[in-house]
Amino acid sequence: MAKNTPDLSDHQFSGALLGGTKPFDLSRFDPAAKPFSSGDKARDKAAVEALALELDTLQNLFYADRRFKLLVVLQGTDTSGKDGTIRGVFGQMSALGVHTVGWKAPTEPERAHDYLWRIHAQVPSAGEVMIFNRSHYEDVLVPHVNGWITPEQTKQRYAHINDFERMLTETGTVLCKFLLHISKDEQRVRLQERLDDPTKNWKFATGDLEARKQWPAYQQAYSDAVNATGTPWAPWTIVPADSKTHRNLMIASVVKQAMLGMKLRYPPSDPALKNIKVV
Amino acid sequence: MAKNTPDLSDHQFSGALLGGTKPFDLSRFDPAAKPFSSGDKARDKAAVEALALELDTLQNLFYADRRFKLLVVLQGTDTSGKDGTIRGVFGQMSALGVHTVGWKAPTEPERAHDYLWRIHAQVPSAGEVMIFNRSHYEDVLVPHVNGWITPEQTKQRYAHINDFERMLTETGTVLCKFLLHISKDEQRVRLQERLDDPTKNWKFATGDLEARKQWPAYQQAYSDAVNATGTPWAPWTIVPADSKTHRNLMIASVVKQAMLGMKLRYPPSDPALKNIKVV
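ok -> structure tokens follow
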């Protein structure tokens, strides 16, 4: 496989609902792998910058086209690089057509509704790129790992999510779901950095250490989530993310492919406009 | 069947997805029927008033209980009595816990999203009664009858709606869907009244006459909708509605039964409260 045309099939999972395929197992993936890398870090960095500019151009056309909605879901453990992805991959796009929601624990009015209520309200409209920093998956992963919902409820919620995502894709939304995959050791380094660097202290929450204690449970929960919701209409892409440059390179490449797949074009012109004379 | 315990099974349809059951056909229903009537109009009117008060009491408990959400969907052709139902059946309930949305043609930002987006944003929260005056069904019925969507899209949307409504019911929402069924002749009388009575002119829209020309297409579309979305979790109730009193009597009775079925109770008290001394 040539480095400039990496094979995504190794890192995409859309096998949920397809009985008999090999189940997805996150532990088979090396967080330090760099399938999209040229082998040269400086060249990779330049490639990310070039891709970010290409994505900006594509987004302008996407905004004018208005036939599609693009929903990018970034999932991954604390410090896996969700914020860095938004800066590095989507940072060149115009804020006019790109929006981000950072999902936190649900508020009281949100908890008083079904868990997809707050999510649905924020899905992208035509011509809009929406990036979810965390997502509806948190509303299954966290209660599941903490035992606040039963295994039966977890299964039920993933069925709801598949239905919801299918409806979104059948009504013009393209969904790109990324699981940012880092090693436990890399997380240790990054958390320590947040503690040691006063300018990064604000990013640290004691809850992060609690979640770190649940590392094996979360890894298993990620595998389960991908198994249950990697669908033909909304596959998961597993992103080896110990290298920040590789992470951005891979995500930018996948988003670019998704946008090229839309065959974007400017909307056809109204012939009547030809007869208008501005006086 | 005794008049005071009418049999609902004749007027409820939950057979979608159950292969082999008799398909639903609206034309078999007499809009002038009064299955819930005592046979005496004055007595029926008094019964509606008593029921509206009972519903108010139930709603107080429902609000305190907070385990459920109640979504009442009122569908029916122009002049079928949706507004009158809200006044006559739900008029005694406290505005604190009862809300109404009158769904109109979607606005531009709404059209830029999937058709369930605006609906999901308005579903009831815990302890809330939400009444939809028209609903997500309009977003299939109107484009379907006017040929703006293909039969395949109509089918697809009803599948989306079934998924959506199942998710709502699996997360604590009780759904009561009413189809208000009047005759074409009764509609003529009511539309003429809106034209002849200056105090009712504001309720008349020329679009009503356009839709009246499509009467058979809409009757067929209602049958199709009930067939496709009368599910075990969200059955349709067909309400003979030529008589306004009977319409209110029947809807109030069904809503009361739904609320009684919740086995409402005040939330259990926190034992710690016993030790608090207000000084």
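The two ends of chain B are 60 Å apart (CA to CA).
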